């Protein structure tokens, strides 16, 4: 759940202000790029292609609005949802062996399984996957859902834009073959989403490579990231979907899964 109170909002802004100048610039650039993408399509490209008002224009405009809303909302949710150990009761399960417990001298706490310290955020992150420079934060237990949907909508929007621009340029613009190099970034976006989605289906994060300790089956793996209502979270990041695990006590869940 990403609804915030006024105090949480100011806490969020204070956290953002502590980020590096480069990350903040990249984050703002990305946000402006998404809005520019929407405005160019809705106010220039689509009116050139379809008469106003028309069913085709409204269909494209509503589709773009839905995609851009989810792009922005999920991107901001990635930034806001806190997956760090700050303010959380880190209980060590009786199933967790002493060999699995490490101590973080920076955060001054016992580090749970699947939790790693981020040098850029300067804090330990639950179920840490990686640090996302564009969102200025780590992708972890409580914001992986938003990050995955953000990547999906970014891939869909990129593919949609390729088709739209191709159709537009075919009728309105004279282009050279070399101009098609602009399509290259789409391959990177789609590849990034494919690799991330593949890890999620296997219950993995970046640090775990090909381990199978936390593979609870496809459906349970999806619930671990997207929550109990995983099948409708694609509609909006504002849909509440409770996560089955707390991101701390992983070993007991592994034992329960093995005894089933």
UniProtKB/TrEMBL annotation:
It catalyses: L-cysteinyl-[protein] + hexadecanoyl-CoA = S-hexadecanoyl-L-cysteinyl-[protein] + CoA. Its EC number is 2.3.1.225. It comes from the Eukaryota. Residues 99-185 form the Palmitoyltransferase DHHC domain. The keyword Acyltransferase applies. Keywords: Acyltransferase, Membrane, Transferase, Transmembrane, Transmembrane helix. GO terms for cellular component: membrane. Its main location: membrane. The chain crosses the membrane at residues 21-46, 58-81, 146-170. It is a multi-pass membrane protein. PROSITE patterns: DHHC. GO terms for molecular function: protein-cysteine S-palmitoyltransferase activity. PANTHER family: PALMITOYLTRANSFERASE ZDHHC16. Belongs to the DHHC palmitoyltransferase family. This is Palmitoyltransferase. It comes from Aphis gossypii (Cotton aphid).
């Amino acid at each position: 759940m990403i609804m915030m109170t006024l105090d949480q909002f100011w806490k969020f802004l204070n956290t953002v202000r502590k980020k590096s100048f480069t990350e903040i610039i990249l984050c703002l650039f990305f946000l402006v790029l998404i809005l520019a993408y929407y405005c160019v399509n809705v106010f220039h490209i689509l009116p050139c292609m379809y008469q106003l008002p028309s069913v085709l224009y409204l269909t494209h405009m509503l589709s773009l609005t839905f995609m851009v809303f989810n792009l922005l909302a999920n991107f901001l949710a990635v930034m806001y949802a806190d997956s760090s150990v700050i303010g959380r009761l880190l209980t060590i399960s009786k199933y967790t062996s002493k060999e699995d417990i490490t101590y973080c001298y920076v955060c001054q706490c016992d580090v749970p399984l699947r939790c790693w310290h981020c040098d850029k955020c300067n804090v330990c992150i639950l179920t840490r996957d990686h640090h996302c420079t564009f969102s200025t934060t780590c992708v972890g237990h409580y914001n992986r859902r938003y990050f995955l949907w953000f990547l999906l909508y970014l891939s869909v929007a990129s593919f949609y834009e390729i088709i739209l621009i191709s159709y537009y340029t075919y009728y309105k613009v004279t282009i050279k073959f070399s101009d098609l190099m602009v399509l290259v970034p789409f391959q990177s976006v789609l590849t990034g989403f494919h690799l991330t989605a593949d890890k999620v289906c296997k219950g993995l994060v970046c640090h775990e490579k090909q381990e199978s300790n936390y593979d609870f089956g496809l459906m349970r793996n999806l619930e671990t990231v997207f929550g109990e209502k995983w099948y409708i979270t694609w509609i909006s990041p504002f849909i509440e979907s409770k996560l089955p695990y707390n991101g701390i006590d992983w070993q007991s869940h592994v034992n329960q899964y093995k005894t089933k």
